[in-house]
Specification:
308 residues, FAD/NAD(P)-binding domain, 5-stranded parallel β-sheet, 26% strand, FAD/NAD-bd_sf, Ferredoxin-NADP_redctase_2
Length: 308
């Protein structure tokens, strides 16, 4: 007999939302969380209906209480391996414990890989930001900068322009096409070309961007589109198919190519905000429960027929 109906790896918004749905469906659920949320450096989260401005840690605390109130279990720990066992899975933890489960939901999120510019990481989630929809309103009408150099940079700067009139795009020399340059000039977005030397701060606030020629461009906040790296090592070792961009292949409910395994949140969708991740967790939970019901029906029919 398995220990749990569903084991969820990752106790962020996606994992806890799924656990809430599944515990309310009277499933036996365990959430294992390593306690390293991606948004830990952020003091507040935005854009979550009825919870706008709430500290992320408080949201998770409330979510854990709700899950536990319906009988769900939450365990602090690190999962090191997911092993198929025929109808279910064996989950190995770093402390040597083993747990069995009928179904798996992996909600391990992603990590942000930042450009290796001195001073940049120190200001991350303070006044060096990645999402204008998450943080743009809080820095509206200030002197904003966008650190460029990737194919989507120009469009990203045009989006940031929605929140302030004074926006500067930092790009390598020769990076912009003639069309891109004209589009930026048309919306009064400043262009600073050259190598970024370091990010300057003073009194725990961003001061500006120092260029390679020692020019200092004063800015109040800087938007930096990071490279998103999914925390999908467990999925890869389990045999889940990974696409060319490095993300696990899934269907519309979050089911991977390995039967019985679902994904939700940032490990599945790099652009999912907290509210999006919670919704994906909820959708995956309903699909998982439906799959379990199908198995329950098969098992019941088999047991019934054996009785005759």
């Amino acid at each position: 007999m398995t220990d749990y109906d569903v084991l969820i790896v990752g106790g962020g918004a996606a994992g806890l939302s799924a656990a809430l749905v599944l515990t309310r469906a009277r499933r036996k659920v365990l959430v294992i969380d390593a306690g390293q949320p991606r948004n830990a450096p952020a003091s507040h989260m935005q854009g979550f209906l009825s919870r706008d401005g709430l500290p992320p840690t408080e949201l998770l605390s409330l979510g854990r209480e709700e899950v536990e109130s319906y009988g769900g279990e939450i365990l602090a720990g690190t999962v090191t391996e997911l092993v198929p066992t025929g109808p279910g899975f064996c989950v190995l933890l770093s402390d040597g414990r083993r747990v069995s489960t009928r179904r798996l939901l992996v909600a391990t999120g992603l990590r942000d890989e930042l450009p290796s510019i001195p001073g940049l990481a120190d200001r991350w989630a303070k006044d060096v930001l990645h999402c204008p929809y998450c943080h743009g309103y809080e820095v509206r009408d200030q002197q904003l900068g966008v650190l460029g150099g990737t194919p989507d940079t120009v469009r990203y700067a045009q989006i940031v322009r929605q929140w302030a009139k004074d926006v500067v795009l930092f790009v390598p020399a020769g990076f912009l096409t003639t069309l891109q340059r004209s589009e930026l000039v048309a919306r009064s977005i400043g262009i600073v070309e050259g190598e970024v030397n370091r990010i300057l701060a003073e009194d725990d606030h961003l001061r500006g961007v120092e260029m390679g020629d020692r020019r200092v461009i004063l800015r109040d906040a800087l938007f930096v589109p990071p490279r998103f790296i999914p925390n999908n090592d467990l999925l890869i070792r389990l045999g889940c198919q990974i696409d060319d961009a490095g993300w696990a292949v899934k269907d519309g409910t979050g089911q991977t190519t390995v039967p019985g395994v679902w994904i939700a949140g940032n490990v599945a969708n790099p652009r999912a905000q907290v509210i999006t991740a919670a919704g994906e967790g909820s959708a995956a939970a309903m699909a998982i429960n439906a799959d379990l019901v199908d198995q329950d029906v098969r098992d019941a029919v088999k047991a019934f027929n054996l009785g005759f």
